[in-house]
Design brief:
The complex is a heterodimer. By secondary structure, chain A is an alpha/beta fold. Helices cover about 30% and strands about 30% of the residues of chain A. Classes of the chains: A alpha/beta, B alpha/beta.
């Protein structure tokens, strides 16, 4: 049986890690905006993660994940040289990259990862690209240096002011608009409340805004219907119709509610497996 | 002298009130003696109507004659000449509309229990049979099969026996398609599905899981890689919704999601298996097909107190297998027939109740069934926290969207020539639910088999 080897693992901050995985079928064909689904072991959940980077020659995919619960902790327990049981993709529609003059990317937390290949591709097309990266504190601001390689301006905000401007990404975006900067498109990727807030800023000015949605998902091929979202009042499946959607049309409140569907069960699985997790983590709790 | 009993020999089953709390198989299968006794009910009539009722043409009277003599391995040989997956068909075929529906014993009394006998023979072979050494002459020609459900594995098995190098591409992490993610453990044990797939692998078929054809690789790329024929059996995986208000509330599942969580991801063993599934005390299942019965009986087993099947037509129109309806009723599932949901109401984002209207049957519609008509002013409300939508599936769109030159119906089904299962694209064949829309396991197998014969005919002399 085919297994998927972890070539590289890096810790990016307290809760966010990067892995580079050998996955020829995915690496050969993936494009910015697409995602993968992985399973850590035979009993594991199917975890969807956006593709952060890929290397067609090495046949590898880079993923970035935040440790938020049982299954991402299980993933984090693996190290370089270990293998994942399943790794499928690329899934979803590639991002539609439009030739334009000026695009502003907005990333919150791990949202930097999926945003990175999209902005890089736009820069390669000759588009002027700026990025606004937000995080709770300095360590959660991801990939500022990488973005600097091709972005005209890299703006940083933190909730506590430990890096860049104190405040939220939306304040920077509002200022840009107020100053009269012409923005052809905003691409916002991050926590749903952030994407909702970004749309709150862009919608009054009717600025085209693309968002990448991450609802709960199982198969990722359109089969189960779990990932449905309302876009312009119609049911869309994020796994096959997305994950990118026109942010001005997305029902973010419904999405936030749907993401809470299994909150209690997520706690339960962490608690019930606490002893096992503790052992896996070498006694660190 | 044939056994003239008007009834089938009863098949042992778990007690309804025991089994509706566990996921073990409901029916326990015949013993040797029971099978031999049932087999003697076959009159071995000359015109063999049962055979015409079988979509894959199993020589039914011939295998039953061997069962009657206690020659179970011989019976197995006869069945598997035409049907590669008898343990599955014996359990999930709608026999009452097929072989058993045509059996002359059914004119007065019950038909011969053909499905039960098929199941017995397959199970006997799995436990006692010996493997015959295979003598397959490889012909060096490569064929790709998309999807490892009933259509795909049948097509792959048939071609492998003829010497082709067959690779099956499966999108999920597990093989079996709907047999794995859709049909529950208590109706079709997953170990049995695995053993049938293993049997196909032993014929030399390669299975590549985690490959989504249309995304990981396209049909055109498969052709470039030297696959001389491609069979598409990707199923009808796209769930339909009713488009009534409230379908996106928390607590509303498509049946596919609910069953996938429980079957494929083993949600019934949560939290040992970490994929959760959550239901309320009252569960409403919309629809009355086999999938709806599976969802309702699964909900009961997960601990729901009141489980309703809500269906807009009447008892005669219920499309599920007779045995499933019978089992569901025994297990305490409540049937609300001639009832149609109009609205799902919520509170704080969660389902609170479902508003329905009563229906009555009018003139026949284009399907030949009497059209259900709303009784004005009959609106009523069911308090419920979980709604499972089970009103059918459409073919998955991935392949049609990524394969230029592949013609499809307006509703998404791939168009094929019915004799050869050939599509509009050269070298590409299709069959099963992706062609017909959601149908049965046996029809998908029949299509897979037909396509295998057509592929062999086309490639043999190439």
């Amino acid at each position: 049986m085919r297994m998927y080897k972890i070539i590289r693992k890096e810790k990016l901050n307290d809760v966010v890690e990067l892995m580079e995985i050998h996955a020829p079928f995915v690496a050969r064909k993936c494009e910015p905006g697409q995602f993968i689904i992985l399973r850590v072991n035979e009993d594991g959940e199917r975890i969807p993660l956006t593709i952060a980077d890929f290397d067609r020659e090495k046949e590898t995919i880079t993923i970035i994940y935040q440790i938020v619960g049982y299954s991402t902790q299980e993933l984090s327990n693996l190290n370089e040289g270990d293998e994942l049981t399943d790794f499928v993709g690329p899934l979803g529609e590639p991002t539609q990259l439009h030739q334009s003059k000026h695009v502003v990317g907005v990333a919150g937390g791990v949202g930097s990862a999926p945003l990175y290949p999209q902005l890089r591709a736009l820069a390669q097309m000759g588009v002027d690209v700026d990025v606004i990266i937000g995080g709770r504190e300095a360590q959660y601001v991801l990939w500022a240096d990488e973005f600097k390689k091709f972005c005209k301006n890299v703006y940083i905000t933190t909730d506590d002011g430990s890096l860049g401007r104190k405040g939220f990404v939306t304040q920077v975006l509002s200022d840009m608009i107020d100053k009269g900067e012409v923005i052809d498109e905003v691409i916002a990727i991050g926590p749903v409340p952030m994407m909702k807030a970004v749309v709150g800023v862009t919608k009054p000015h009717n600025i085209k805004t693309s968002v990448s949605l991450n609802p709960i998902m199982i198969d990722g091929t359109g089969m189960c219907g779990c990932c449905r979202v309302s876009v312009d009042g119609k049911i869309k499946f994020a796994c096959v119709d997305g994950p990118d959607f026109d942010g001005l049309q997305v029902d973010f409140d419904e999405l936030m509610t749907r993401q809470r569907m299994f909150k209690e069960e997520e706690h339960e699985v962490v608690e019930k497996n606490a002893n096992r997790m503790c052992n896996l983590m070498g006694g660190v709790k | 002298m044939p056994n003239m009993s008007l009834e089938k020999v009863k098949m042992p089953e778990q007690e309804p009130n025991v089994r509706n709390k566990n996921f073990e198989e409901v029916s326990l299968g015949y013993t040797r003696d029971q099978a031999m006794e049932e087999a003697t009910r076959c009159l071995n009539c000359k015109h063999q109507p049962c055979k015409q009722g079988c979509p894959v043409g199993v020589p039914i009277p011939e295998f039953i004659a061997e069962v009657a003599k206690g020659n179970f391995e011989e019976a197995y040989e006869i069945i598997t000449k035409e049907n590669a997956l008898p343990a599955i068909c014996g359990r999930v075929c709608p026999q009452e509309n097929q072989c058993e529906g045509k059996c002359v014993r059914g004119i007065k009394g019950e038909s011969v229990g053909i499905g039960r006998l098929e199941r017995f023979v397959a199970d006997y072979h799995r436990e006692h049979g010996t493997k015959k050494p295979l003598d397959i002459q490889k012909n060096g020609k490569k064929v790709a099969v998309v999807g490892s459900g009933p259509a795909g594995i049948t097509c792959a098995g048939e071609l492998a026996k003829k010497g082709y190098d067959v690779t099956v591409f499966e999108a999920l992490h597990k093989t079996g398609g709907v047999l794995s993610y859709g049909i529950p453990e208590f109706r079709l044990p997953k170990a049995l599905v695995q053993s049938e797939v293993d049997g196909v692998a032993e014929l030399g078929v390669d299975f590549e899981t985690n490959v989504v054809v249309g995304r990981s690789i396209t049909i055109d790329e498969l052709q470039e890689q030297g696959y001389e024929a491609i069979f598409v059996g990707s199923g009808a995986g796209l769930p339909r919704f009713q488009n009534i208000p409230g379908e996106n509330l928390n607590g509303v599942y498509a049946a596919n999601e609910f069953l996938t969580r429980v079957n494929l991801m083993k949600g019934y063993q949560f939290p040992e298996h970490p994929t959760p599934v959550k239901i309320s005390d009252t569960v409403c299942v919309i629809g009355a097909g086999n999938v709806a019965m599976d969802a309702a009986r699964t909900a009961k087993r997960l601990g729901a107190k009141d489980v309703y099947i809500v269906y807009r037509r009447g008892a005669e129109e219920v499309p599920a297998r007779a045995e499933e309806v019978h089992h569901a009723k025994e297990e305490g599932i409540i049937f609300k027939l001639l009832t149609n949901p109009v609205k799902i109401e919520g509170e704080d984002g969660w389902v609170k109740s479902m508003e329905c209207v009563e229906m009555e049957l009018g003139e026949p519609d284009e399907s030949g069934r009497r059209r259900p008509v709303v009784k004005e002013g009959s609106n009523f409300t069911i308090e419920t926290g979980t709604v499972i939508v089970s009103i059918g599936q459409s073919p998955n769109p991935l392949i049609r969207q990524t394969t230029p030159g592949l013609e499809t119906q307006k509703w998404g089904g791939i168009i094929v020539d019915e004799d050869s299962m050939k599509t509009s694209k050269d070298g590409v064949y299709a069959g099963g639910d992706v062609v017909t829309g959601a149908a049965t396991v046996i029809l998908a197998m029949g299509a897979g088999k037909k396509a295998a014969q057509a592929i062999d005919k086309a490639l043999k002399n190439k």
